[in-house]
């Protein structure tokens, strides 16, 4: 699965961003903390486990850092219990100790989780069993690290640390939740439909049609959400202060601080929720964009169809920055005779093989399209030298010569036109077409490149 993830960098990026937003959402809402007597459960560390299992050590460590920062921020309020003030460098009286307790232990926990999952992926033959063991131990390890740090750094204030290791109802629930969730995610991620979805999301379709305005709209939406969340938090903090004053409650500076503190928590949670929605929409958009792109591929050869290829060409030739590109026409020689002699099935096979050879030789330089029938075209936005291009044409002609049989040589006529952008596409198209017919007039099975 690690190799699959390495081939899907876009999927990893989106997943990591989603986990960051989920971590904040869980840290600042009831989703990460549940207190229903006699059960009191903390599982805001679940995104850390997911990142360690599916992404990597660095991502799990970073999420551990965010978890710790969120815990530290929540402890920096005057309404928290005295025991919770140990987590705040501003209220505990020991800033360095509190920083390590709140942030250091959670960051170290993320590092250990990421390392444990890495070792399972790399060396353990039974992956699901290994994931289950780590998920089972993670809640206890997290609690043990925090309570041990509390006992060492704040020995006078710490009490009840030994309860961390007791198998109470809270620990059982948290452990079961971690184990079940990670196992379900593992099974889901290995489903073919999920892998196919990830493959579609990972494809960079924006370079085929230009960056879609949806990206700009997405950026505007995020900026608007941030501004709206900040404005609403400040407004409601002010209105709550006014309301309490109107009811005769005297507001001290500490109360005002706590009101604003709570509103900032609400702001972060609201922004995280909106961010999750925005990223989810972006993922769906990427998936649908690639589905649309696949529908516009040539059904026989699997290269770009005429419309999408010509749209891409117009985008390349209209670039405002000056660069040398090359447009190429390829026409299969005597293709009608191939169909008449060997049948249309053999003709289709020849077209498929030619398309594959073109992709093999030119995909690193540009895009290949089928314009119709036996006509192909290539746009090279990273054009090699004319000498190198001639060598590639020679290699290509040699590769396709024996596609049918030793007695019937397959060849192509090729016309190539080098040009500097920007330039009118119709002019380029007409000149390259002229080069192609010049190659045919020379006897076919050759190429013509403009001087």
UniProtKB/TrEMBL annotation:
Transmembrane segments: 14-33, 39-57, 62-81, 96-119, 131-153, 173-193, 214-238, 264-285
SMART domains: GGDEF
Segments forming domain GGDEF: 323-451
GO molecular function terms listed in the Swiss-Prot or TrEMBL record: diguanylate cyclase activity
Top-level taxon: Bacteria
Keyword terms, alphabetized: Membrane, Transmembrane, Transmembrane helix
PANTHER family xrefs: DIGUANYLATE CYCLASE DGCM-RELATED, REGULATORY COMPONENTS OF SENSORY TRANSDUCTION SYSTEM
Name this protein carries in UniProt: Diguanylate cyclase
Originating organism: Roseburia faecis
């Amino acid at each position: 699965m690690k190799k699959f993830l390495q081939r899907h960098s876009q999927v990893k990026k989106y997943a990591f961003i989603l986990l960051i937003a989920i971590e904040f959402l869980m840290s600042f809402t009831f989703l990460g903390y549940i207190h229903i007597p006699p059960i009191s459960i903390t599982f805001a560390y679940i995104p850390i486990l997911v990142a360690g299992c599916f992404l990597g050590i660095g991502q799990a460590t970073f999420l551990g850092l965010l978890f710790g920062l969120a815990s530290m921020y929540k402890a920096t309020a005057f309404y928290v219990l005295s025991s919770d003030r140990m987590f705040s460098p501003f209220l505990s009286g020991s800033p360095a100790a509190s920083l390590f307790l709140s942030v250091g232990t959670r960051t170290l926990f993320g590092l250990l989780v990421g390392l444990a999952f890495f070792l399972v992926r790399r060396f353990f033959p039974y992956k699901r069993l290994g994931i289950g063991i780590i998920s089972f131990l993670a809640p206890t390890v997290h609690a043990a690290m925090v309570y041990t740090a509390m006992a060492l750094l704040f020995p006078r204030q710490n009490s009840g640390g030994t309860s961390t290791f007791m198998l109470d109802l809270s620990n059982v629930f948290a452990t079961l939740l971690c184990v079940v969730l990670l196992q379900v995610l593992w099974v889901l991620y290995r489903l073919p439909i999920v892998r196919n979805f990830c493959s579609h999301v990972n494809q960079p379709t924006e370079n085929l049609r230009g960056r879609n305005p949806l990206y700009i709209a997405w950026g505007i939406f995020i900026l608007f959400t941030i501004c709206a969340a900040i404005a609403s938090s400040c407004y409601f903090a002010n209105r709550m202060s006014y309301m309490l004053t109107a009811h005769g409650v005297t507001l001290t500076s500490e109360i005002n601080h706590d009101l604003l503190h709570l509103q900032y928590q609400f702001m972060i949670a609201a922004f995280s929720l909106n961010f999750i929605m925005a990223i989810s929409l972006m993922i769906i958009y990427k998936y649908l964009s690639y589905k649309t792109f696949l529908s516009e591929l040539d059904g026989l050869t699997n290269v770009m169809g005429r419309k999408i290829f010509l749209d891409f060409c117009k985008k390349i030739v209209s670039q405002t920055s000056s660069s040398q590109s090359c447009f190429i026409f390829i026409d299969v020689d005597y293709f009608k005779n191939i169909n008449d002699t060997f049948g249309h099935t053999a003709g289709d096979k020849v077209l498929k093989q030619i398309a594959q050879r073109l992709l093999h030789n030119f995909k690193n330089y540009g895009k290949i399209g089928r314009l119709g029938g036996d006509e192909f075209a290539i746009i090279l936005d990273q054009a090699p030298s004319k000498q190198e291009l001639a060598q590639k044409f020679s290699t290509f002609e040699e590769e396709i010569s024996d596609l049918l049989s030793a007695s019937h040589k397959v060849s192509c006529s090729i016309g190539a036109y080098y040009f500097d952008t920007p330039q009118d596409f119709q002019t380029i198209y007409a000149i390259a077409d002229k080069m192609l017919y010049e190659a045919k007039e020379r006897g076919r099975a050759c190429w013509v490149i403009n001087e």
